[in-house]
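SUBJECT: A protein chain and its fold
Encoding: whole-number codes for local backbone shapes
RECORD BEGINS BELOW THIS LINE
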Amino acid sequence: MASATAQPRKINYRLRQTLAHTAIYLVLIIGAILVFIPFAWTVSTSLKTESQTLASPPEWIPNPVQWKNYPDALTARPFGRYYANTFIITILSVIGQVVSSALVAYGFARFRFPGRNLLFILVLSTLMIPFHMLIIPRFILFKYLGWLDTFLPLIVPNFFGGAFSIFLLRQYFQTVPLELDEAAKIDGASAFQRFWRIMMPLARPALGAVAVFEFMSTWQDFLGPLIYLSSDRNYTVSVGLAAFRNDYFTAWHLFMAASAVAMLVPLVVFFVAQKYFISGVALTGSGGGKG
């Protein structure tokens, strides 16, 4: 009798699980479609003629396909130089952010000194300061330093760490057992050697996360370059796109072509980094233990 009643319960449980999983997958699929629609429309518009971009009702499939929109858009303004400027700023910013934040996070995670927790709270409190409040003081400072219309205001601040990056790396460093530090210290390793040779290799997943966050933030930054850069030769991609939009106000097909190319690099970095996170966690995961 018990087995007879257990069988329908088991079937009902499996049915509920199947329905729940189906509902979750449907929500995820719908969300993915909604996110993909703007990107698909950008690519579609980038391959149309100017008259097709204003057609009503809208045409999703361009006919004929205008591949020449891409070279026309990228040569209308010096986008090659814009990309080179953006890569220089982004790569140097990522290096500065990762190295400086890791150094500060290592100090908070491993060293004991008076006021450590208070100082860490002060660092985190800077996250509550809106960026717009710092625009005028920073502009005046960089003006006195003679850094306006150079890449320095966009690169140098990243070599002093970021509160969020420091917090993320500190939390990761605290999961690394102290026994590793103690063993290296017994072998005669200095504090910097322990940081560089032990902590940095173990923290590759967290360092990768910080690098990707900083890459995306710097690559997509518009306000910073707009404030500090005034020469066309120093423009980044985001500012170059805004200038392109002002010059070709009705050429939506060319603007979408330039925008599609600008989105290509962040998309590639995202997919590459996603794979790196999975392999990095598998290869460098470490056990618990508070620092």
The radius of gyration is 26 Å. The chain has two domains: 2-46, 76-284. The chain is about 75% helix and 0% strand. Confidence is low (pLDDT under 50) at residues 279-291.
